[in-house]
Amino acid sequence: MAEVMNDKKIFSLLEVTQSVEKTLTDRYRCSFWVKAEMNKLNFYSHSGHCYPDLVEKRDGKVIAQLRAVLWKNDYLRVNKRFLDTLKEPLKDGVKILFLARISFTPLYGLTLIISDIDPGYTLGDLEQEKQKTIKKLQAEGIFHNNHQLKLPLLPRRIAIISVETSKGYADFLRIIENNSWNYKFFLLLFPALLQGDKAPAQISKQLQKIKKVKHHFDAVAIIRGGGGDVGLSCYNDYNLAAEIANFPIPIITGIGHATNETVSEMVAYSNAITPTKLAEYLLQKFHDFSVPVKEVERSLVDKARRIVTEEKTSLYSEVKLFRSVTGNILNSDRNKVDNSVIALQQQSRFRLKNERELLRNYGTTIRKDSFLLINHFTVDVFRFKEKLLTQCELQIKENRLELDNMERNIDNMDPNNVLKRGYSITLLNGKSVKDLSEVKVGDSLHTLIFEGEIKSTVDETVKREQQ
């Protein structure tokens, strides 16, 4: 009950909230359908209950917001219907059409109690988002960009975006690495989440990493498996699809579902239903090259064998003919050689006989001429000998006279003979004095004469005047 204080009627908070509760209970007696965006599911695993945050937006701004409750049993039933219809669980960020009733309590305030959610409405919204992404890519002219790239004839170097522990990735590796044809691949994993709200950002981040080293790869494979058709709406994300469409090398996908192709798969260079089919697709590329090569190889071997056989037969025939022809030629040439040998022997004997006779005649002539020449040269030698002896005696006499004259001159020039004639030699320090300028007053001189020497000291030098 309200109390009066200073002429004021005052209600307690409980009284106010109870009044609001009664009013809302009287006004909203039945459930009704509401459409809103589930901003957060707020699932609590320990209890199994959900406490969704519901919002309504206009032009990107929140214009209404309310809390809701989805009890465990209702959540399990609704989530199963979502998985059956959308191939997606109930999750954050989806638009829903739900059946709810208003609940208000003094303690927890206003809450919507959700009893059912129509997955068909959400499916239509997701499909609408998917079509919106497709139209935006087409309007920007990039929808077919990755399709137009050229996959190498033998795509051997593959960058893989997957979860290392996923069954699909394991299946892909098993098919690739254990292929019976021993085809070799270079595979490098770039790990990322492949479903859920965080998947588009993580996949895009890994694509950016691969783009920096794109020259090391022939293609990128996005591999997801083991989850069936659940959690595929993230592949309709515009940013992820645009990243795939604009990627500079071919992107091939094996996301692991058979229906409802996603936008990311549509814009990728090639799409396989499962990781196993993706591995088989790559192996088939090698088959498409290997099988014709092997066919050509077999054809070349067969043709080479036929040519070798034909040439061998032709060679045997040519050898046989060659032996026959060469045998005939050899026999003919052997007869010619035999005849030539006989003729050569006869001609040699005749020639030797003639040459022997000529040599005999030359020998007689040479002996006769040699005797005549020897006699003639003997006379000339004797004459030359006598003349040489005469000339030698004359030359010896003349040389003896010249030697006698030279001896007399040498005797005349002997210093002793010169001194005998009254000449003398003056020495200064053991050397003969040839110029007055070499002598000065006080010098000791030695004067050599015929029978001795005179020692003197210079008192004065007088230069003789020239006439």
Q: How would you characterize this protein structure?
A:
This protein has 467 residues and is of the alpha/beta class. It has four domains: 3-122, OB fold (Dihydrolipoamide Acetyltransferase, E2P); 140-288, Rossmann fold, CATH 3.40.50.2300; 363-413; 418-457, no CATH class. Helices cover 50% and strands 20% of the residues. It has helices at residues 13-27, 72-86, 119-139, 167-177, 199-212, 238-245, 263-267, 275-413, 415-420; strands at 3-5, 8-10, 32-40, 53-58, 61-69, 94-105, 109-118, 157-162, 186-191, 219-223, 251-254, 270-272, 425-428, 431-432, 444-449, 452-457. A five-stranded mixed beta barrel has the order 3-4-5-7-6. A hairpin with a 2-residue loop joins β4 (53-58) and β5. α2 (72-86) crosses α3 (119-139), α4 crosses α8 and α5 packs parallel to α6 (238-245). The protein is elongated, with a radius of gyration of 67 Å. Belongs to the XseA family. Residues 143-456 form the Exonuclease VII large subunit C-terminal domain.
Described by strand count, sense and barrel closure, the largest sheet is:
5 strands, mixed, barrel
Distance between the termini: 183 Å
The CATH architecture classification of the largest domain is: 3-Layer(aba) Sandwich
> What is the CATH class name of the largest domain?
Alpha Beta
Number of helices: 9
Return the average pLDDT rounded to an integer.
88
Total number of distinct structural domains: 4
Strand order, sheet with most strands = 3-4-5-7-6
Summed up:
With 467 residues, the chain is of the alpha/beta class.
